[in-house]
Every structure is written in structure tokens, then in C-alpha cells.
């Protein structure tokens, strides 16, 4: 069969299954989720091997940021789905007194989920949990840039679901173009803003809702009273994890001029002790290495640590660049690699203006201060998808917190109940007593 025929067949099968009500039974949804979790656990070793091959991830990182993220999401759904799926029933008032209102959470139908390469297991399958919990069907397209992980995702899905409920289509641009032409009822995309615009246009053609999880340059703003040891610990871990290929990774560091040297000295000591010329994991391909190497050639800043790379092993050293200005090559686009630019400042008000002017509405903003209220007041003045005070990145792994961007960093929130909500059409029903 041609890929067009395979996709056509999968789409028709899912449409038929949905229209016959196969996905709406709550017990059936729960059973699917339990089987899904078990299939993930049964394939742990193969998942470890796939993510090591594609991205150099250790089992510890996979347990936390890939497998654990998905199974935690499943656990939240298993615990709460029965309650969340109940109709909200209440008496109406005013002109409608004597009748009854009902709000029902109903599935949209057929969903298309497009996964990214950086956390290919987590960010392809965590969105699926919400889709299944809400009673939808789904076609998944994992990233072609991580082929080993794509293959194990396909295996896990085939062990978990009937193909008329969830199907995996592997491939690249050709397959995506065929899928985007299909009249899906819902689109979910994680990736770059440029591709996000293509997905949004396709969704518009079908008048379908869309969730876009994009990216952006996430700033870290250090206050003069910050706990510097805590800052350095969290900064190095989150910046160099997965070789910086994390959409909510700290992209650049803003430090008061008065403590800049102190911060830099501690940072260099930490990198020398823990990273020794490497980052954590591999870059996805040599094209990404060339892009990062190009930044270092173009920057007017001073490379004070790292800068080395090996195309064969796809390793790029944990790198720090100081004396960076806002118009530098490193400050134009999301870096998405283990390069940390450092900018100094003397005035927080100016910092706010610069962030808003140059990198409007980032996916996350981070502030470090012992004065929690001062940090909260500051981040309140800057729009971002989400934010953290005295930590970074971890909010994106918490199933109790809605996660997502705003404007150029994305639209739509998911995780936990927001995942159930985004995949559910809230249908109003009024009943008049006969």
C-alpha cells in the first residue's frame, strides 16, 4: 500500500469507530489508559535503548523526563477521569427558572498529534493521554529525526490500542502534508513557531481547534539577593540537560553588574567539575551542531567556557559566553543547545523593557530572589507562557500545573485536568420538564 492509502485507511477506520461511540465509554477509556501504562513499563529497556541511540539520554533522564512524564499523566487521569467526565447539572434561574441546565464534556473526534524530536517519547505521548481520556481517537506522527524512538512509540501504541482508536504514522514532510490535508477535528503540535504556523493554517482550513506548543528565548533574571549556589545548581542542570534541546530551558542569563563576576566564577567552577568539556546527551544531528557553531563564530561576546564539539559523537561542550549585548547573534532566535549567553544589567526596569521588546511572550521566565514577592511582582509585569521563582524547567513536568505558551510561544494549555478540558467540547443542554 502507498502511504496515502495507509493514511486514508487509518482515517476512515477512526472515523467509523468514533461515530459508532466506541470511544465514549468511561470504563473503556480507563481500560485503554491502564493498558497504555503497562505497555510503556513492559518496554522500558527498549525505550532506554532508543533514547540513548537518538539523543544520548541516560536511563535516569528517561525515567524522569520521558517515561515518568507520561506515566504520571496517566496516573492523574486514572485517578480523576470518572469525576471530570460527569455532567455538571444545575437548576436554571430567571426567565429559565423551572428548567435544568447541563454541561457535558464530549470528545471532539479525530485528533492529529505531531511530536517533536527533543523529548520524543514524552511530548508525543503525554498529549495522547488527554485525547484518550476525553474520548477521542488519535493519529500520531513522531519525529523522523529520532527514528529509534519513533519505532518504539509505534510498538507501544500497537500493544496498547486498537488501530481504529490510535494509529502511528512514521515519516517526515510527505506524510505530514498528507495528514494535514485530512479533516481532523483537533490538531496538537509541539515544535518550532515556523512549522506551527503551517499547522495552524491547516487547522483553519478545517475550522478545527489547535494547540501549539512552541518555544522562545526563556530568560533567567537574577536579583542581587539571589541564592547564587541554588542558581548555579539549577541553571547548569536545566541548561545542559539534553544538550540544551529543551523548549523551556534557560536561554540566556541576566545578572546584576555588581555580582556578575561572582556568578561567573561559580558557574565556571561548576562546569569544570561536572561537565568536563561535555553536555548531557547528544545533539539530534550534525545540522544542529553546525547551527550552534555558527552562533559562536558570529557572536561578539567572549567564549569563556566550552565551544568545542564533535560531529561524529554529536557532543557539544557546555558553553558560556559573556559580554553579550541584546543585538548579538546569540540573542536573535532560540538557541536550543548548550550555549549560555550572559548579559549584565544595572536596572530591573530596563531589563523588563528589553525582554518585552526583543523576546515578547517567551514560553517561560525565571526569576531568582530571596524576596519571593519582589520576584513575583517582576514576572507579573512580563507576559510569558509560564514562570518559576528559584527554579527552572520543572513546572513543565508537573501534572498538576497547566503548561503552554502564549502568542509566539504557543497557545493552549495541557497536563492533568487542562489536558482533559482542551480535548473536550463543553456542550450545553437545557431540559424543560414535560
TrEMBL record:
<dbReference type="GO" id="GO:0006081">
    <property type="term" value="P:aldehyde metabolic process"/>
</dbReference>
<feature type="active site">
    <location>
        <position position="213"/>
    </location>
</feature>
<dbReference type="InterPro" id="IPR016160">
    <property type="entry name" value="Ald_DH_CS_CYS"/>
</dbReference>
<protein>
    <recommendedName>
        <fullName>Aldehyde dehydrogenase</fullName>
    </recommendedName>
</protein>
<dbReference type="InterPro" id="IPR016161">
    <property type="entry name" value="Ald_DH/histidinol_DH"/>
</dbReference>
<dbReference type="InterPro" id="IPR054920">
    <property type="entry name" value="BenzalDHMdlD"/>
</dbReference>
<dbReference type="InterPro" id="IPR016162">
    <property type="entry name" value="Ald_DH_N"/>
</dbReference>
<dbReference type="Pfam" id="PF00171">
    <property type="entry name" value="Aldedh"/>
</dbReference>
<dbReference type="InterPro" id="IPR012394">
    <property type="entry name" value="Aldehyde_DH_NAD(P)"/>
</dbReference>
<comment type="similarity">
    <text>Belongs to the aldehyde dehydrogenase family.</text>
</comment>
<feature type="domain" description="Aldehyde dehydrogenase">
    <location>
        <begin position="5"/>
        <end position="428"/>
    </location>
</feature>
<keyword id="KW-0560">Oxidoreductase</keyword>
<dbReference type="InterPro" id="IPR015590">
    <property type="entry name" value="Aldehyde_DH_dom"/>
</dbReference>
<dbReference type="GO" id="GO:0004029">
    <property type="term" value="F:aldehyde dehydrogenase (NAD+) activity"/>
</dbReference>
<dbReference type="GO" id="GO:0005737">
    <property type="term" value="C:cytoplasm"/>
</dbReference>
<feature type="active site">
    <location>
        <position position="247"/>
    </location>
</feature>
<dbReference type="InterPro" id="IPR016163">
    <property type="entry name" value="Ald_DH_C"/>
</dbReference>
Amino acid at each position: 500500500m502507498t502511504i496515502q492509502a495507509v493514511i486514508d485507511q487509518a482515517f476512515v477506520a477512526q472515523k467509523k469507530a468514533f461515530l459508532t461511540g466506541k470511544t465514549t465509554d468511561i470504563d473503556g477509556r480507563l481500560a485503554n489508559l491502564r493498558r497504555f501504562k503497562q505497555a510503556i513499563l513492559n518496554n522500558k529497556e527498549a525505550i532506554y535503548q532508543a533514547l540513548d541511540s537518538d539523543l544520548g539520554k541516560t536511563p535516569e533522564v528517561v525515567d524522569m523526563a520521558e517515561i515518568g512524564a507520561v506515566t504520571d499523566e496517566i496516573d492523574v487521569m486514572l485517578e480523576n477521569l470518572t469525576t471530570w467526565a460527569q455532567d455538571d447539572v444545575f437548576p436554571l434561574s430567571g426567565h429559565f427558572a423551572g428548567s435544568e441546565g447541563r454541561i457535558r464534556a464530549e470528545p471532539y473526534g479525530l485528533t492529529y498529534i505531531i511530536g517533536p524530536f527533543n523529548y520524543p517519547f514524552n511530548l508525543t505521548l503525554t498529549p495522547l493521554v488527554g485525547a484518550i481520556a476525553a474520548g477521542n481517537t488519535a493519529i500520531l506522527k513522531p519525529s523522523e529525526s529520532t527514528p529509534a524512538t519513533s519505532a518504539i512509540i509505534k510498538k507501544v501504541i500497537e500493544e496498547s490500542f486498537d488501530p481504529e482508536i490510535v494509529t502511528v504514522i512514521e515519516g517526515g514532510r510527505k506524510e505530514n502534508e498528507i495528514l494535514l490535508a485530512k479533516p481532523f477535528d483537533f490538531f496538537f503540535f509541539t515544535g518550532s513557531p515556523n512549522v506551527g504556523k503551517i499547522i495552524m493554517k491547516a487547522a483553519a482550513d478545517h475550522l478545527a481547534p489547535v494547540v501549539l506548543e512552541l518555544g522562545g528565548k526563556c530568560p533567567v533574571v537574577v536579583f542581587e539577593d539571589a541564592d547564587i549556589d541554588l542558581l548555579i545548581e539549577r541553571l547548569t542542570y536545566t541548561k545542559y540537560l539534553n544538550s540544551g534541546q529543551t523548549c523551556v530551558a534557560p536561554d540566556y542569563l541576566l545578572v546584576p553588574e555588581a555580582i556578575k563576576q561572582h556568578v561567573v566564577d561559580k558557574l565556571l567552577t561548576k562546569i569544570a567539575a561536572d561537565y568536563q568539556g561535555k553536555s548531557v546527551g547528544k545533539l539530534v544531528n550534525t545540522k544542529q551542531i553546525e547551527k550552534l557553531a555558527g552562533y559562536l563564530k558570529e557572536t561578539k561576546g567572549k567564549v569563556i567556557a566550552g565551544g568545542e564539539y564533535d560531529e561524529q559523537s554529536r557532543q557539544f561542550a557546555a558553553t558560556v559566553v559573556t559580554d553579550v549585548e541584546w543585538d548579538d547573534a546569540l540573542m536573535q532566535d532560540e538557541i536550543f543547545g548548550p550555549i549560555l549567553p550572559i548579559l549584565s544589567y544595572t536596572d530591573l526596569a530596563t531589563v523588563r523593557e528589553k525582554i518585552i521588546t526583543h523576546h515578547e511572550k517567551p514560553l517561560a521566565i525565571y526569576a531568582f530572589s530571596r524576596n519571593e514577592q519582589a520576584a513575583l511582582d517582576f514576572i507579573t509585569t512580563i507576559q510569558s507562557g509560564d514562570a518559576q521563582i528559584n527554579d527552572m524547567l520543572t513546572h513543565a513536568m508537573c501534572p498538576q500545573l497547566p503548561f503552554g505558551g502564549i502568542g509566539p510561544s504557543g497557545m493552549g494549555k495541557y497536563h492533568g485536568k487542562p489536558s482533559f478540558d482542551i480535548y473536550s467540547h463543553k456542550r450545553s443542554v437545557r431540559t424543560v420538564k414535560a
